[in-house]
Every structure is written in C-alpha cells, then in structure tokens.
C-alpha cells in the first residue's frame, strides 16, 4: 500500500475513487522522470515527474505539477481516475471544459472586434 504526503482523509478518498473506477495498483506501470521547468539544479537531479500507465486501458498520465515525487504520485492517480471516468461515463474533464470556455470567449471577442471595425456589416452568429 502506497502512502501519499497528503491527509489521511484525502488518501482514503482517492482509494475509494480508484475502487469505483475499477483501478488497482497492480494494473499500473509507474516510471519516474526528471521534470522540467523552474527549479534549477534541484530539478536536474531529482526524478519528481511521475509517468503512469494503466495497462488494461492503455491510458497514460504524466504529472509534474509539484516538486515532490510523492505529491505527483497522488495527483497522477487522481488524473488517471478523471480520465477513466471521462472515457466510461462520457463526462468532460475539467481541462476540456476550460478549453471550450476559452474558445467561446475568443470567438465572442473576434465577433465584437469585427463589429467594431465594420459597423455596417453586423455579424449575428
């Protein structure tokens, strides 16, 4: 059993969620990679990035959110649950919802700018 550097409540919640998704630790292939980004010499020496592969589904997750390997292991499993839920239940992930929202905002801004520069040509889409 893996211990994560989070509260026991969060660790238990993750284990319950993994069980609901049908994920077991034995189904994972886990690798540790040197992460990129700020941190200088520290990030060049430590392998804190976690790569997680769920063998039965072929789903891959790479997490370098935190500087701590333990926290990245926790978050990788959390992201894996989100991806499995999205595949099985057809739900949109938080990332997809965020991307769609940004796309709509850009489209709206583009229409407003076009209407401002060409007042006689109103675009109603």
Give an account of the 3D structure:
With 125 residues, this protein is α+β, with helices and mostly antiparallel strands. It has helices at residues 8-21, 41-45, 69-89, 94-117, and strands spanning 28-33, 49-54, 59-63. A three-stranded antiparallel β-sheet has the order 1-2-3, covered by helices on one side. Strand 2 (49-54) and strand 3 (59-63) form a beta hairpin. The longest helix is centred in the last third of the chain and has 24 residues, at 94-117. It is extended, with a radius of gyration of 20 Å.
Order of helices and strands: HEHEEHH
Secondary structural class: alpha+beta
Gyration radius from CA atoms, angstroms: 20 Å
Mean pLDDT: 88
Q: Numbering strands along the chain, what is their spatial order in the largest sheet?
A: 1-2-3
Compute the number of strand runs: 3
Number of helical regions: 4
* SS strand fraction: 5-15%
Remind me, CATH topology of the largest domain? Double Stranded RNA Binding Domain
| Percentage of residues assigned to helices | 40-55%
Shape: extended
Top CATH class of the largest domain: Alpha Beta
Low-confidence stretches: none
Count the domains: 2
CATH architecture of the largest domain: 2-Layer Sandwich
InterPro entries: Mito_Transl_Release_Factor, Pep_chain_release_fac_I, Pep_chain_release_fac_I_sf
Domain Prokaryotic-type class I peptide chain release factors: 23-118
Pfam family, one: RF-1
Protein name: Peptide chain release factor 2
């Amino acid at each position: 059993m893996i211990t994560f550097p989070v509260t026991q409540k969060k660790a238990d919640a993750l284990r319950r969620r993994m069980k609901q998704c049908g994920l077991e630790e034995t189904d994972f292939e886990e690798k540790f990679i040197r992460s990129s980004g700020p941190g200088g010499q520290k990030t060049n020496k430590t392998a804190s990035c976690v790569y997680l592969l769920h063998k039965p589904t072929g789903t891959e997750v790479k997490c370098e959110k935190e500087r701590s390997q333990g926290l990245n292991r926790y978050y990788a499993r959390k992201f894996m649950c989100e991806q499995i839920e999205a595949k099985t239940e057809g739900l949109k992930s938080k990332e997809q919802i965020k991307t769609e929202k940004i796309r709509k905002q850009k489209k709206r801004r583009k229409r407003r700018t076009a209407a401002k520069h060409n007042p006689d040509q109103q675009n109603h889409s």
